[in-house]
Amino acid sequence: xxxxxxxxxxxxxxxxxxxxxxxxxxPGSRSAPLALALHAAEEAGRVRLHxxxxxRSASFLGLGMAKRAGRPVVLICTSGTAAANFHPAVIEAHxxxxxxxxxxxxxxxELRDTGANQTIDQVKLYGTAARWSTEIGVPENRPGMxxxxxxxxxxxxxxxxxxxPGPVHLNAAFxxxxxxxxxxxxxxxxxxxxxxxxxxxxAATPGSVxxxxxxxxxxxxxGDGAVNVKRYVAAASMAGWPVLxxxxxxxxxxxxxxxxxxxxxxxxxxVERHRPEVVVTLGKPGLSRPLLSLLRRAEExxxxxxxxxxxxxxxxxxxQVAPEVEIPVVSGDDAWLKSxxxxxxxxxxxxxxxxxxxxxxxxxxxxxxxxxxxxxxxLLFTAASMPIRDLDQVMRxxxxxxIMANRGASGIDGLxxxxxxxxxxxxGRSYALLGDLAFLHDQNGxxxxxxxxRPDLAIVVVNNRGGGIFSLLPQAALHGPFxxxxxxxxxVDLESIAGAHGxxxxxVEAAADLPKAITGxxxxxxxxxxxxxSNAVLHAEMRKAAHAAVRAVLPR
Length: 556
What we know:
- The chain is of the alpha/beta class.
- Helix content is about 35%, strand content about 15%.
- Helix 15 links the parallel strand 17 and strand 18.
- Helix 1 (about 5-20) packs parallel to helix 6 (about 145-160), helix 3 packs parallel to helix 5 and helix 11 packs antiparallel against helix 19 (about 530-555).
């Protein structure tokens, strides 16, 4: 099985699982693997295949069928102007709300802009006429591809149908060979789920509520951008589920909220005994690799997605997607929740002991103590790199504060300005937790005219004189080039920057001094100097202590 035929077989099979009954093919060379997969499905009686030699006629044939049937029809063509000839029908489908799945075969990226035969720019070829457009990417023989391909098709099928039906575009680039090579082996099973589509999509229509199967062995995961948080946290609590909330999900409060799930899920023995029957995800999780691994292990992974064009499923494990979910109240034994909470309590206590043993300022303790010290009604804006991850690992549950971060694209840029803007819109006290590089990257955000309103904002800058997060990544083992190209050390004096802008400045000398240092009014800068190597060692000690504590409370 070569990559081109493997991808085509999976795409066609998943389309059939989603509900495809009709496909229209305009023959060509680059689309050969798709044509052969469709022909095999036709021979097996799984699809009605319609072949037309003219792409424009083929596309309008599909449009007419989809318009009458009210369900997606698949259009397939080869590369070049063949794909361009689909455009009029795609425009009509867009304007009249007709569901189409348009799959254009393409030459591989290395042939683009080289003068290679039958090669044009097909990426987002149909512009705004497509409800959604994506490039599948050249298929590779490596694990994880099947989940990606199947979830991609499920998403395309769902988006073509609603909430407003229309065309979607998948661009499939193939390298040769394009036909079967006689070798049926592949690095992972190509089969899908026997129950149907990889991800079942429930469109946003009146009464389209997905009812979660009743179970005590459930987990609520809350990430960035979550909506209706209080409602779902309350429902999870009534169902006896633990709540694993990232800080900027603003759901880390109450008796069911955990603070050390990052460490719990890093212990294989704990994970094996705590495999959830269902996980419901709100918002976009992504701070913790162990948490993302949990999503892969869930028997049922339900994603709450008000906007079906952008549902968050970074590990391609979603089994169902819906704009609204109902978590039922379940009576019975609460051993599931107690077990999670006991392990969480042990891990948190172990981490606290490690942090409290060091009187000097450390990055994770600074994050933990800052959240604990904030007055009720406060806003905390945090950088999207190491500060938000420190909060995720050490922040204890509490009410009365709001945490924000630019985690949409997780960039380092514009964070001083974003924090100031958020503070100006907030009615209470505001704080920011930034790394030194993030602060320096947007130091121009401190420039304000004499008539501009100044925020009540304390900017706490963790200054480890470089890119601290890289010290916790595999790059840190590359001692030769590490400092030059990853650590990026600097010699900037933050107090001088504060002085240049007329902003009050304080430095935190000891960890216990933080609550006093952040007091005050108006815009002010608080610097906490740390060491990158010591920080990496401290994180390793936290992880070791937490894992040992979790193992100690597991039943023998």
